[in-house]
Amino acid sequence: MILGQISDIKQILNSPKDIVIVPHRNPDGDAMGSSLGLYHFLNQNEHNVDVIAPNDYPEFLKWLPGNDVVLKYEEQMSICQEKIDRADLIFTLDFNALHRAGDELGKAIETSKADKIMIDHHQQPDDYAAFTYSDVSMSSTCEMVYNFIEMLDQLDKITPEVATCLYTGIMTDTGSFRFQSTTSRTHRVTADLMDKGAVNFQIHNAVYDTNSYSRLQLLGRAMQNLKVLPEYKTAYITLSQEELDTFQFKKGDTEGFVNYGLSLKDVIFAAIFIENQQDAIIKVSLRSKGNFSVNEFSRAHFNGGGHTNAAGGRSHLTLKETVDKFISILPHYKAQLSQ
After folding, report:
1. Under-70 pLDDT residues of the chain
2. What was the pLDDT predicted at 123?
3. What is the rounded CA–CA span in Å between residue 225 and residue 246?
4. What's residue 339's pLDDT?
5. What is the model's pLDDT at position 2?
6. What is the pLDDT of residues 113-131, one digit of tens each?
7. CA dihedral sign of residues 270, 29, 213, 244
8. Among candidates 321, 310, 307, which has minimal Cα distance to 275?
9. Can you tell me the distance from the alpha carbon of 146 to that of 130, in angstroms, rounded to the nearest whole number?
């Protein structure tokens, strides 16, 4: 985002506006943290702000300040459409293509007369926004929202609520600050957020230490299903719909499971395949270490994308067929995986 654009945005925000903030479908900690952080920030300037999530999100994020104001497009389509039709400005956060908000909500955003502002750190963004702040080197969209507030010269307006939301998204998208995208700047930003009211140990506890018994049982099954392919330095996990049902799966329960495969010694590529019979798809999550790009792998083979070291995708084959396809592809990447 260039200085001229920031000047234009300052001018737009100089008077009260009707603003809608939209995260991606199946929002995670970074999506909800950035959306609610920006919500609290903009609310201070007398704007009329609404957060519209495409659908529901995990329980471990529903403690976030402002959660009670979030509208869900899937459940409240009529009122959400009214908000979008009335909006002067729509922020799209943590996604770079409108279909990531869901087909219907994506079309509603596209046809809206509102100016669009994209803030996102995923690769290869689409060109739909009047103002685009895209930086794939960033740890998270929450760090980018902090930078956006700084560009507006309003860091003094980061309240404890803003700080808590932004810290949450940075923490979750960096894997508690252990991923390669965590920079010294990231730590300086989170230090400032702590100074401004984010209580780090309380946030960590709320996100990571509130497991249900059934989720831990599901994790146990996932570990039983873990397979390693040492010749490709690859590990993968499968979870069938029957297994999800057995352990009373709730949205968000499999968050982070794929990282257990990546934690194995000598493994640099990990995947998890989760069956969703309702949508007739297999959800695919991919993680890697080093320079092996799961973004390119997912785009090429599983209708997805993301970051170099973290990406997602989907398959319309059966669970077994999807795994067989995955294994059959690996020989083509053996040279890259052997480096």
Report:
1. 1-4
2. 85
3. 15
4. 73
5. 58
6. 999 999 999 988 999 999 9
7. negative
8. 321
9. 20
Q: Taking Cα atoms as reference points, which of 144, 117, 145, 125 lies closest to residue 20? A: 117
Q: Kindly report the pTM of this predicted structure.
A: 0.90
Residue type, 188: R
Tokens of 85: 């039709």
pLDDT tens for each residue of 161-218: 999 999 999 999 999 998 889 999 999 999 999 999 999 999 999 999 999 999 999 9
Q: Which amino acid is at 22?
A: V
Q: For the chain, what is the HEC assignment?
A: CCHHHHHHHHHHCCCCCEEEEEECCCCCHHHHHHHHHHHHHHHCCCCEEEEEECCCCCHHHCCCCCHHHCEECCCCHHHHHHHHHHCCEEEEECCCCHHHHCHHHHHHHHHCCCEEEEEECCCCCCCCCCEEEECCCCCCHHHHHHHHHHHCCCHHHCCHHHHHHHHHHHHHHCCCCCCCCCCHHHHHHHHHHHHCCCCHHHHHHHHHCCCCHHHHHHHHHHHHCCEEEHHHCEEEEEECHHHHHHCCCCCCCCCCCHHHHHCCCCCCEEEEEEEECCCCEEEEEEEECCCCCHHHHHHHHCCCEECCCEEEEEECCCHHHHHHHHHHHHHHHHHHHCC
The reported pLDDT for the residue numbered 4 is 66
The pLDDT value given to residue 124 = 86
User: What is the identity of the amino acid at 17?
Assistant: K
